[in-house]
Amino acid sequence: MAELLLTPTHPLDGRDLPAETAGIVALEPLAATVAVRAEGAAADAAAAFLGTTLPGPGSFSRTADGVVVWLGPDEFLVTSAGSGPDLERRLRETLRPHGGSAVDQSANRVGLSLTGPMVRDLLAGGCSIDLHPRSFPPGSAVRTTLALAEVVLLAGDSGFTVLVRSSFAGYLADWFADAALEYV
């Protein structure tokens, strides 16, 4: 039987978001994304595999080529720009002996990078989270709604990353383009 290979495509291919949003929003490259459930020995195994400590509530940690986001007491979202499609298999093999699990969600979310002096104002127009650096400093992460779309919002050193479901990426891109008109 012939093997069917599909080339991943970004749901926003063809959009020039930096031009549409006054330079505030840019596409992040597609990344392998894995939902991890792990506690105890499984969490220790995941941390060793990823080369970073697993984050605590409301935060994320960086790996060599991605992030690990805390989503719940034993739930993490792992992204990796360079690991390719076998990340889920390798994590699953690492976690299974310890009672943990890993599920590929690479087609589930895409990343948008937001930078610039007006980024907090732009996000505040569609998000109820207090984004002031005292309340949401770099390293913070939260699941929330942004313009009625469920997102994972990460605060970085120089801006924010929004992880949005692929099916809502076009809607959110349109919302950003409209909301950014104020800053053009």
UniProtKB/TrEMBL annotation:
InterPro entries in the cross-refs: SoxG (IPR007375), TrmE/GcvT-like (IPR027266)
Gene3D superfamilies documented for this protein: Heterotetrameric sarcosine oxidase (3.30.70.1520), Probable tRNA modification gtpase trme, domain 1 (3.30.1360.120)
SUPFAM superfamilies, per the entry: Folate-binding domain (SSF103025)
Pfam families from the UniProt entry: SoxG
Coiled coil: none
Domain of life: Bacteria
Protein name: Sarcosine oxidase subunit gamma
Organism: Kineococcus gynurae
Lineage: Bacteria, Bacillati, Actinomycetota, Actinomycetes, Kineosporiales
